[in-house]
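Hi F.,

I've been meaning to write this up properly since the lab meeting, where we talked about keeping a consistent format for the predictions we share between groups. The idea is simple: the sequence comes first, exactly as it goes in, then the structure tokens exactly as they come out, then a line or two of notes. No screenshots and no reformatting. I'm using this chain as the first example so we have something concrete to point to.
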Amino acid sequence: EVRLVESGGGLVQTGGSLRLSCAASGFTFGATYMTWIRQAPGKGFEKVANISPSGTTFYGDDVKGRFTVSRDKAKSMLYLQLNDLRTEDTAMYYCVKGTNYAVRGQGTQVTVSS
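Output, unedited:
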């Protein structure tokens, strides 16, 4: 059974930082594309970043230069470092197995206050 468990969210002021984690199990994590998506209140899902099995990364335009995605294959962990946070980054953040948004964890809330 695929299981994805996010953690690390919280309340932070503008300009602050957070590190999100996603513990993955039930599949071959090291051979799988992984994606971070987010959903702000009243909006649809937005792709934030993804990382290939070889470590190639992609970032959405809104987070490029501020967020960094990484993975630890030995621990089956996915990470997202969020720096220079803005109020518009407030959202529920999810990790996704592959690119099918339906296969995601329960999410972790990030709230950025001004």
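Notes:
The beta strands are 3-7, 10-13, 18-25, 34-39, 45-51, 57-59, 67-72, 77-82, 91-97, 108-113.
The longest strand covers residues 18-25.

If this format works for you, I'll send the rest the same way.

G.
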